[in-house]
Write a structure and sequence with these properties.
The chain is of the alpha+beta class. It is 26% helix and 33% strand. The protein is built from 7 helices and 10 strands. A hairpin with a 2-residue loop joins β5 and β6. It is elongated. Pfam families: GntR (PF00392), UTRA (PF07702). This is GntR family transcriptional regulator.
Length: 246
């Protein structure tokens, strides 16, 4: 396999095109691994960065999927369809998983009780320095990390909340304690993630995330939680039902 280093077509695109042709021709079948970045460097005589960009491009196209600790594999056509998350409903990650018939796993990366910063206190309408729970969770659908969540929850309502409880559905736990989440106010943006979030979601350096900043309230109007949720854009798209003003 050769590439033209004098061509105006970038080297990574030439590699991607050759791999795409092999996938389309069935030379590399669904479920088969593609060559590693190190192997691509040797095959084509390119840098590790060029090889990585070629693989990243295939991932963004949905032709291959990375699996941490295993490698990068060709996927079945249509297998990489995105989950559509409606903005006009407050769907938790657990509810999204249930609606799409998929298994969810919660990895609690950090959980501690801490004084609320001025900004978090303002958003929760509590005095600065009031105790809140701070949590970081990574949520996986099957083997694929799809949500990185940071949240701050009021501690006065739930003084006995535990790290172990947060390995399951957070809102199911709240309901079991007699609290009823009513909904949230969200701000949605697309942005390049921090290195910590990028690595957790198994993204390349130039892949953006969908960022949701939300404030959650209970049915009695109490503001309970501030969250920053980062969605793996390989898995999600957003929709909203907009009504015409009569």
């Amino acid at each position: 396999m050769k590439i033209d280093k004098n061509s105006f077509t970038p080297l990574y695109l030439q590699i991607e095109q050759q791999l795409t042709e092999k996938i389309s021709a069935g030379e590399i079948k669904p479920g088969d691994p593609i060559p590693t970045e190190a192997a691509l460097c040797e095959i084509y005589g390119v840098s590790r960065m060029t090889a990585r960009k070629a693989v990243d491009y295939l991932v963004r196209q949905g032709r291959v999927a990375r699996f941490r600790g295993r490698g990068t594999f060709v996927v079945e056509p249509g297998e990489q369809q995105k989950i559509v998350l409606p903005l006009d409903r407050h769907l938790t990650a657990s509810e999204v998983a249930q609606e799409n018939n998929q298994r969810i796993e919660n990895q609690v990366l950090e959980f501690r009780r801490t004084p609320a910063s001025d900004e978090i206190a303002r958003e929760l309408n509590i005095p600065a320095g009031t105790d809140v729970y701070f949590m970081i969770r990574l949520r996986l659908l099957g083997d694929e990390p799809f949500v990185y969540e940071q949240c701050w929850m009021r501690a006065d309502n739930l003084p006995d909340i535990s790290r172990a409880a947060m390995t399951s559905s957070k809102y199911a736990y709240l309901r079991s304690k007699g609290f009823q989440p009513a909904g949230s106010t969200k701000l949605i943006s697309a942005e390049l993630p921090s290195n910590e979030i990028r690595l957790a979601l198994n993204l390349s350096r130039d892949q953006p995330v969908l960022h949701s900043h939300a404030v959650v309230s209970f049915t009695d109007g109490t503001l309970f939680e501030v969250s920053d949720v980062y969605y793996n854009q390989k898995n999600y798209s957003f929709s909203v039902h907009a009504k015409v003003k009569s």
